[in-house]
Amino acid sequence: MSTLLDMDRIIDDRRTRIIVCCGSGGVGKTTAAAAIGLRAAERGRQVCVLTVDPARRLAQSMGLSSLDNTPRLIDGIDQGSGGSLHAMMLDMKRTFDEVVEAHAEPARAAQILANPFYQSLSSSFAGTQEYMAMEKLGQLRRSDEWDLIVVDTPPSRSALDFLDAPERLGRFLDGRLIRVLIAPAKATRPFARVLNAGFSIMTSAMTKLLGAQVLRDAQTFITAFDTMFGGFRERAEATYRLLQAPGTSFLVVAAPEPDALREASYFVERLDEERMPLAGLILNRVHHSPATRLSAARSLAAAETLEIIPNEEVDPADANGYPVAAAALRLHAERMSLGQREQRVAGAFTSAHPAVPVVEVPALPVDVHDIDGLRRIGELLGGRGASLQAS
Fold it and tell me: What does the pLDDT read at residue 385?
């Protein structure tokens, strides 16, 4: 049986500097990340919540019309403990632009930013979002303005693609295409003529495939960008090591459903492979079975009995009571069955991963869309959630 995940202990531990929330879509991951950030802020931490999820749920839940690439202070929190809460949403292209502006001379930066190949790369190149998430996390951590950063990753398995960012970037920078494109600029030795002859053959074929202008833009970009490659890789690798460090805690968020818990198992196993510090599982929207001896089967049987009583045997004054009672019994049976089904599904996960601590958050009657709702979720994750789980 899994142990209880003590969220307040993680939040209150000042050595915890990064919390990463990951999980499949639709399980309440963004809400959990926001609630954790709010609870930590109201317990005295200086918190920044970074969402990589392009949806607007984080802004909406914090009462904002939108979020952008700059951390914004969230109003309405209890600052009695001296904490603060900021939130932001990753802007992939803007983050890339910031990196260029910070690590290149002004003239070189302007040349790169205006390059059509760069504009395409920074907006839509596969893997750019994941690498920029690493960049932004590294920037926030290096700024030392916040003592806790909560990361809300994209839904589905792509949530962990940022772990591959350093290796993917290395493959790109060391790739044959990059070496070919920068070869003429570096070919200063006696065999440069041979290299240029080979390059001409290669570029002739690429020109036919891509077009002359695209190839020229790519060459110009690579030549201008070449001096920044090493810094990109070094920062990505440094952030990767930061994620492996004891000050980081990964939280997997799931609903008590087969598909969501299969994804959760994948996350748990992948984090273990990458030697990332997994803190535990947040099992969200749990329907607890009512504390009663009236089973689902007996409730359904009683409902059927009430529904088939002949009308002539019923006092007219009580005629409306039987359908209402039957409906209530059926609702009770459905809730009992749902709770038992969720318990079986969750039990399969905990049996497969007995060392993973778990905290349950019960399903609420309404969606969370404001600070008060986030505070309630934080209470359930913290002390009140622990008492529910233990009882």
Answer: 47
The helix (run of H) or strand (run of E) holding residue 359 is strand 358-362
Sequence-distant (6+) residues with CB within 8 A of 305 are none
Alpha-carbon gap, residue 193 to 187, rounded angstroms: 8
Rounded to whole angstroms, the Cα distance separating 285 from 363 reads 4
Distances (CA, A) of 345 to 259, 262, 341, 351: 10, 10, 6, 10
Looking at residue 287, its pLDDT comes to 83
Rg of the chain taking only CA atoms, in angstroms: 27
Q: Which of 83, 17, 76, 96 is nearest to 50 (CA)?
A: 17
Going by their DSSP bridges, the two strands 278-286 and 46-51 should be labelled as unpaired
Cβ neighbour number for residue 8 with a 10 Å cutoff: 16
Q: Which fold has domain 7-289+346-390?
A: Rossmann fold (3.40.50)
Q: Where are the domains of the chain?
A: 7-289+346-390, 296-343
CB 42 within 8 A of CB 17: no
pLDDT recorded at residue 187? 46
Of 234, 241, 237, give the one whose Cα is nearest residue 18. Answer: 241
**Runs of H (alpha helix) within 104-164:** 106-113, 116-124, 128-143
Asked if residue 135 lies in contact with residue 95, where contact means CB atoms within 8 angstroms, the answer is: yes
CA 67/CA 54 separation, integer angstroms: 10
On the CB side of 174, CA atoms within 13 Å amount to 7
Q: Give the pLDDT score at 292.
A: 61
| Residues contacting 378, CB < 8 A, separation 6+ | 35, 36, 38, 39, 42
pLDDT along the chain (391 residues), means of 10: 87 96 88 95 96 73 77 90 93 87 86 84 72 87 94 74 70 57 49 42 43 65 67 81 93 94 92 94 83 63 61 52 64 67 89 94 83 92 53 32
